[in-house]
Amino acid sequence: MTIDRTIAPEFKAINDIKLIKPEQLTLNNGLQVFCFNSGGQELLRLEWIFGNLRFNPEKPLLNQAVSTLITEGTETLTAAQIADRIDFYGAFLQAEYGFDTSQLTLFSLNKHLSSTLPVVKDVLTNAIFPQKEVDTYVRNQQQKLQVSLRKNDVVARRLFNKALHGNTLYGFSPEAEDYQKLQREDMLGHYHEMFRPSNCTLIISGKIEKEALDLIIEMFGENWQLDSNPADISQPEVVAATEHFYYKEKPGALQSAIRIGLPAVNRTHPDFSALQVLNTVLGGYFGSRLMANIREDKGYTYGIGSGISSFKHTGTWFIASEVGADVCRAAIAEVEKEIGLLKTELIPEDELNLVRNYMLGSLLGSLENVFSHADKFKNLYFSGLGYEYYDNYMQTVKTVTAEQLKDLANKYLDSDRFYKVIAGKY
Amino acid sequence: MVNFNRFTLDNGLRVIVHEDNTTPMAVVNILYDVGARDENPEQTGFAHLFEHLMFGGSVNIPVYDEPLQRVGGENNAFTSNDITNYYITLPSANIETAFWLESDRMLNLAFSEKSLEVQRNVVIEEFKQRYLNQPYGDVWLKLRPLVYKTHPYRWATIGEKKEHIADAKIEDVKAFFKKHYNPQNAIMVVGGDVTTEQVKQLAEKWFGQIPAGEKYHRELPQEPEQLEERRATVTGKVPLNDVYIAFQMCGRTDEGYYAAELISDILSRGNSSRLYRSLVKEKQLFSEIHAYITGSLDKGMFVVEGKPLENVTIEAAEAAIWEELERISTELVPADELTKVQNKTESTMVFAEMALLEKAMNLAFFELLGDAGQLNNETKKYLAVTAEEIQRQAKAIFRKNNSSTLVYLAEKPEPEFA
């Protein structure tokens, strides 16, 4: 059998993407629980997600420090005992800080849930932030900060975030002094206001058996105290800086980190899905225009990409790369050229169709297991959106026209609004 | 438990099929049995550079990525000192596109001068980004030649130096392809929403006609036993001192491997681990400390790495590490602690079964080791390790005469104003 290898096999468009929707429970104490049940492996992921408290510029590290140090000791368990208990049962307990929410995540085999859950309960209700652990955190974070500040991409990101988001959780990057200012009393106060059932969403995914769910409801419903005052999770207004250009010179740099971008809309805006298409064309996948031009044609960089970050109170469109120090200006000129082309020329139908298929395939591929379905839900839920968002998204990806994308490029990619940050040599 | 079927084409291509109908996706993972260890010492970094060139078009298909993206697929690849691994994820309805693309580049590449020129630049930028323009980025370029004197593990996958990449010629690229990229040196795993029958038919159709090529017979100089303590000190533009102690250890297929990996878990996995608890939390000597193994197919490395706090001398830091290494070599690990790391390994294996691509990569890797089926015996092997074996391995590894210490000293920088 001879085959003609120059002809690509037939392919099918992706039409139907099914998302698993959760079952919702509201417990008596106000806790919202969402369950994604699947067969398969005997394991669970539980995520307790809390809204961050209002940013206080005088005590800017509190959300971050409290969310990170919550596992470092309770009234009954030391940090070491918490770690021992979790590790012994082959479980994983992660405390993570995010811009809008922070969360505690437990990965556990079902068979060990009755041993691992009480530890989480203790952490969520009785954390004490021992002074010794706070001191260790401060010392180690200060050391790690010194290393981070030697990385050009980190320096560029910090400057960029500050310029676009000012004095907010999104704009803040800690300095060594900020760690010094951490007070245990402040942390305790912050903890008690933030980590309460009415400010919590619990998302369970995996193989949810009845005994497990009963145990969870008993422990985090009936036995988690009802609170009176709601947590203040409002946030100060995001105000971007008037200065649009930042250059941090790093003598001897072999590469320069560049970050170029501007304020954008977030997921709740009707244009967001179409902007995702436009962004994908520009720098959102391996075959994007930025990669094709600046890596694959010019060889200026190992990688370049763009993305739109959707936060609760703002959005940001950014392009990031690390480029050879000697070609920094040339690379920026090419980035600007590519942005300009989106505003002046229609995206060829062939390229647009490729991007449509790529994006739908990518969405389908991102639904690898039940955890990924829960992640999709989080995107919606914390933006105050419903599943119609994904229906609209798929519809937009399939049907948005080159004319509409050109109009959007002109509407959103206003040259005067761009911020440009370079760390390295320019 | 990861189920699979296995067959071999007449040209020697080994194919493994993992049916998983819980997903609408499919993965195609092709492992080529070639890594940086197979390079000429004068042309290091070649296996990795070559991986980049595999995306520069093949004999009948001018560009690789575009047709894949057009059918909703994504792909990537990595090169290690031992293997080069390529993978595609795409909607299963379009699986044939993956066969078309992968078979054409196994058949022959386009060998374009333009592609070579650009990818040389891209890889040199990668070299800068990951190894030269990062604090401590060049550690592996310095540590490997300290641990290995003979074996090609003495250079990193990126290459010994940028010049080796800059000098690569198209003839070298062609010769490398001929030597390593053929059905006999490859293992293909197809996983996801597919059937074995379908994969057999597609494999036959697209790969069946590719000439078998020559089997590459590996004859690498093996690293002799280390007989003396080794040490190097470098000073660089880094903010903090950093200490690396590397030991030679057995290869991936050696019986002792499982105990060695559990030792690294006892020392450094999670917040209950010994080094973290003792040296970061209790004695407060380090801001961070890690222990890990390279898992290499030939003689590997067991590495302990930590950044001492600013008021701690290098001598004190090293002594504290050695104290923990002595302890695990002389005292039997308590039953609870051993059970803990074994439980962790067991649950990690269960979690890994939720990731299709990871399963496919693991099957390919274990087939390379000799039998894909051994993937399902891994957990058992970790659970069978005894406290005595842990002690025996620790004793064998943690000897001064088997150590290579690299001290990375912070050069006090010019004051910098923000």
Notable characteristics:
heterodimer; A: 426 residues; alpha+beta; Cytochrome Bc1 Complex, Chain A, domain 1; five-stranded mixed sheet; 15 helices; 43% helix; globular; B: 418 residues; six-stranded mixed sheet; 11 strands; hydrolase (chain B); metalloprotease (chain B); metallopeptidase activity (chain B); Insulinase family protein (chain B); zinc (chain B)
Kindly describe this structure.
The complex is a heterodimer of chains A (426) and B (418). In chain A, β1 (23-26) and β2 (32-37) form a beta hairpin. Helix content of chain A is 43%, strand content 19%. Chain A has 15 helices and eleven strands. Chain A has a six-stranded mixed sheet with strand order 1-2-6-3-5-4, with helices on both faces. A five-stranded mixed sheet of chain A has the order 7-11-8-10-9, with helices on both faces. Chain A has helices at residues 62-69, 79-88, 113-126, 131-148, 152-165, 176-180, 184-194, 210-222, 272-283, 289-297, 328-344, 349-365, 370-381, 388-399, 402-412; strands at 23-26, 32-37, 43-51, 92-97, 101-109, 200-206, 245-249, 255-264, 301-310, 315-324, 419-424. By secondary structure, chain A is of the alpha+beta class. The model of chain A has no long low-confidence stretch (mean pLDDT 95). Chain A folds into two domains: 23-222, Cytochrome Bc1 Complex, Chain A, domain 1 (2-Layer Sandwich); 245-424, Metalloenzyme, LuxS/M16 peptidase-like (Cytochrome Bc1 Complex, Chain A, domain 1, 2-Layer Sandwich). Chain A is globular, with a radius of gyration of 24 Å. The longest helix of chain A is centred in the N-terminal third of the chain and has 18 residues, at 131-148. By secondary structure, chain B is of the alpha+beta class. Chain B has two domains: 5-207, Cytochrome Bc1 Complex, Chain A, domain 1, CATH 3.30.830; 230-410, 2-Layer Sandwich (Cytochrome Bc1 Complex, Chain A, domain 1), CATH 3.30.830.10. In chain B, 41% of the residues lie in helices and 19% in strands. Chain B has 15 helices and eleven strands. Chain B has helices spanning 46-53, 65-70, 95-107, 113-132, 139-147, 162-166, 170-180, 196-207, 257-268, 274-282, 314-330, 335-352, 356-369, 378-383, 387-397, and strands spanning 5-8, 14-19, 25-32, 74-79, 84-91, 186-192, 230-236, 242-249, 286-293, 300-308, 403-410. In chain B, the strands form two sheets. Chain B has a six-stranded mixed sheet, sandwiched between helices. A five-stranded mixed sheet of chain B has the order 7-11-8-10-9, with helices on both faces. In chain B, β1 and β2 form a beta hairpin. In chain B, α3 packs parallel to α8 (196-207) and α11 (314-330) runs antiparallel to α15 (387-397). The longest helix of chain B is centred in the first third of the chain and has 20 residues, at 113-132. At the A-B interface, α2, β5, α4, α10 and β10 of A face α2, β5, α3, α4 and α10 of B. Chain B: This is Insulinase family protein. Chain B: Keywords: Hydrolase, Metalloprotease, Protease, Zinc. Chain B: Residues 170-344 form the Peptidase M16 C-terminal domain.
